[in-house]
């Protein structure tokens, strides 16, 4: 296959979530001497962006997004160490976790894949993340953005508990806070004092990029 055919194949197969084929094409591309960043930026990311666009238009639903995300994640596993070797610049660091009391992670995992695909370094703390764990992880990793995810109305008050913990630790001004999850609304995000809210994975990437740009443009040169 020519490099063009490999890139087109990667794009098409990621779009339909054919994970085994995406991995095969990734291996084939690398074997023929293609750069890992070419595979990522010329095929995988555009395909996932198209998945996001189709979701926004209502042509794709959560299952389609998930299988496309998983297909991309398989390729990323293979490419991540190679990209690190080539020193590909990440656009920012995003720390993510599902709040204490909540074990839902499908939405969070999908957001992570989309963020990673968009060039963010993602640190995933998993589920049931207590406020003090968020605080220590922020101190350790120094992320640009921290994301709190909640799937249940009963766990949404943890957003406020997390915000209070950040305030108490003196970290509130050093990170951008984003919140999300099925029951969460913009109004609720505003009420708890978050910097950003997004309704789905595709919107999260756009919002995260915008907030990061805003944060960096405020920093004095």
UniProtKB/TrEMBL annotation:
<dbReference type="InterPro" id="IPR036594">
    <property type="entry name" value="Meth_synthase_dom"/>
</dbReference>
<feature type="domain" description="B12-binding">
    <location>
        <begin position="91"/>
        <end position="221"/>
    </location>
</feature>
<dbReference type="InterPro" id="IPR050554">
    <property type="entry name" value="Met_Synthase/Corrinoid"/>
</dbReference>
<dbReference type="InterPro" id="IPR006158">
    <property type="entry name" value="Cobalamin-bd"/>
</dbReference>
<keyword id="KW-0479">Metal-binding</keyword>
<dbReference type="Pfam" id="PF02607">
    <property type="entry name" value="B12-binding_2"/>
</dbReference>
<feature type="domain" description="B12-binding N-terminal">
    <location>
        <begin position="1"/>
        <end position="91"/>
    </location>
</feature>
<protein>
    <recommendedName>
        <fullName>Cobalamin-binding protein</fullName>
    </recommendedName>
</protein>
<dbReference type="InterPro" id="IPR003759">
    <property type="entry name" value="Cbl-bd_cap"/>
</dbReference>
<dbReference type="InterPro" id="IPR036724">
    <property type="entry name" value="Cobalamin-bd_sf"/>
</dbReference>
<dbReference type="Pfam" id="PF02310">
    <property type="entry name" value="B12-binding"/>
</dbReference>
<keyword id="KW-0170">Cobalt</keyword>
